[in-house]
Design goal:
Layout (H helix, E strand, L loop, with lengths): L5 H28 L4 H9 L18 H12 L3 H19 L3 H12 L5 E4 L15 E5 L2 E11 L7 E6 L12 E6 L5 E3 L14 E11 L3 E2 L6 H37 L13 H30 L4 H26 L1 H4 L5 H9 L1 H4 L4 H12 L8
Parallel strand pairs: 1-4
Antiparallel strand pairs: 2-3, 3-7, 4-5, 5-8, 6-7
Helix pairs in contact: 1-2, 1-3, 3-4, 3-6, 3-7, 4-6, 6-7, 6-8, 6-10, 7-8, 8-10, 8-12
The protein binds flavin-adenine dinucleotide.
């Protein structure tokens, strides 16, 4: 199997240990109760993982895309909701870290590295849906403050995170892709109104809720980067980190489905043959097909992550392809697992049912599979990814 560098292997091992000690035993209750996985996230914070993308001089690990792929896969194998909340926290952390001022470093990044602060992304809006890079939330500068008005949808860790990395435009720029500005909004700010509780089909612990911003006043110092240049964030930070973080989570789900059926086939035998199902050639063949699909998607994801970390100009192609492929793989592999798991695994609250439900979000979470294939196809045809 693949060799990781010692520092990434160490992070993978920490994630694996916390996952088997805490995440695995919480996953069922998180799913069934639709509970935000506070205990699991606290355990990750105590293990020092929340600062994966915080620079080392601020106490973090200073890691890039490959580490994110490896860590989120390990977490996704045990609790997809925790892995997704961790992934969103990591993408938002990277957005803050990318153009951090000394104020952002002390206010957000150091507490994140110390496990005292969870952040997340609030980009999507009801009006523009999958086109998360076209916000209609408005900001107006008033003295040294910025006042925000608008609506966000599907904010993971909504109502629980300490801060929200949020996009907004000045009046008059509502439908202009990429001219938005990013701000960090602290969860305690007056005027943040959370909509109804998240009742997802899968990813049930995510707390991915709607948010109304009603004249939310924040210091202008909470702005990230310079005003209106945020298409840079979309393609340099948000998309790569989102894509790799989510690809890791869904790879973990697929691996968990494979682990579940492998255990079933090794343990289950019929009295009339006395043989374990693992000895049946057609079943071994199907397990092989699942493994090939998972491993191929994993290698594409890690290849894309390595290109992204190296700043290779070909990285966007591999990144767009990776999440589209992982989404197709995980929905297919969880379905194959359900076929091989037999009636014993066809249980409403069973592990495979949870994995299958969680897997369905892979296509619809931005960048969606259709949008990724549009970006990939346009890039291959020599066109800019965004366009008519
Ligand atoms: C579990 C979960 C967690 C999430 N967490 C976050 C989060 O933390 N932060 C955040 O900002 N967002 C988050 N989102 C939002 C997510 O990233 C998407 O923005 C959202 O799911 C898009 O949903 P929609 O209903 O608006 O889709 P719609 O825009 O209604 O799209 C429906 C379908 O049509 C396709 N489609 C639409 N227009 C086109 C087109 N022109 N060409 C091709 N295909 C098209 C889409 O690809 C999609 O498959 C989350 C979503 C989910 C489900």
């Amino acid at each position: 199997m693949e060799h990781l560098t010692p520092d990434i292997e160490r992070l993978r091992q920490i994630a694996a240990d916390v996952s088997s000690d805490v995440l695995a035993s919480n996953a069922e209750v998180v799913d069934q109760g639709g509970q935000w996985p506070e205990r699991s996230l606290r355990a990750l914070a105590e293990a020092g993982l929340m600062g994966l993308h915080v620079p080392e001089h601020l106490g973090g690990h200073g890691k890039g895309l490959l580490a994110l792929a490896v860590v989120t896969e390990e977490l996704g194998r045990h609790c997809s909701s925790t892995a997704m909340c961790f992934g969103m926290h990591s993408v938002a952390t990277k957005v803050v870290a990318s153009k951090a001022t000394p104020f952002h470093e002390e206010r957000f990044l150091r507490p994140i590295a110390e496990g005292r602060h969870i952040t997340t992304l609030a980009l999507s809006e009801p009006g523009t849906g999958s086109f998360f890079f076209i916000p209609r939330t408005k900001f107006a500068v008033e003295g040294n403050d910025v006042v925000l008005d608008g609506e966000k949808s599907f904010v993971t860790s909504g109502g629980h995170a300490d801060s929200y990395v949020l996009s907004a435009v000045p009046p008059g720029f509502e439908l202009d892709p990429g001219t938005f500005t990013c701000f960090v909004v602290e969860g305690s700010m007056p005027g943040l109104k959370w909509q109804q509780e998240w009742q997802g089909f899968g990813m049930r612990g995510n707390s991915s809720r709607g948010l109304r911003l009603d004249r939310v006043r924040i210091p202008e110092a909470n702005r990230l980067g310079s005003e209106g240049d945020q298409i840079w964030y979309v393609f340099e930070v948000v998309a790569p980190y989102f894509i790799i973080g989510m690809s890791g989570v869904y790879l973990g789900i697929a691996q968990a489905a494979l682990d579940t059926v492998t255990a079933h086939l090794k343990e289950r035998s019929h009295v009339h043959t006395g043989e374990q199902l693992s000895a049946v050639p057609i079943l071994a063949h199907q397990v092989a097909e699942m493994w090939i699909r998972v491993e191929r998607a994993r290698q594409l994801t890690r290849h894309a992550a390595r290109l992204g970390d190296a700043g290779d100009p070909q990285a966007p192609l591999a990144l767009f392809a990776a999440k589209a492929d992982v989404a197709e793989m995980v929905t297919a592999v969880t379905q194959m697992a359900m076929m091989l798991g037999g009636g014993r695994n066809y249980s409403k609250d069973g592990t495979l049912a949870r994995l299958m439900r969680d897997a369905q979000a892979a296509h619809i979470m931005s960048p969606t599979t259709q949008i990724l294939k549009t970006w990939l196809g346009r890039s291959l045809l020599g066109l800019p990814p965004l366009g008519a």
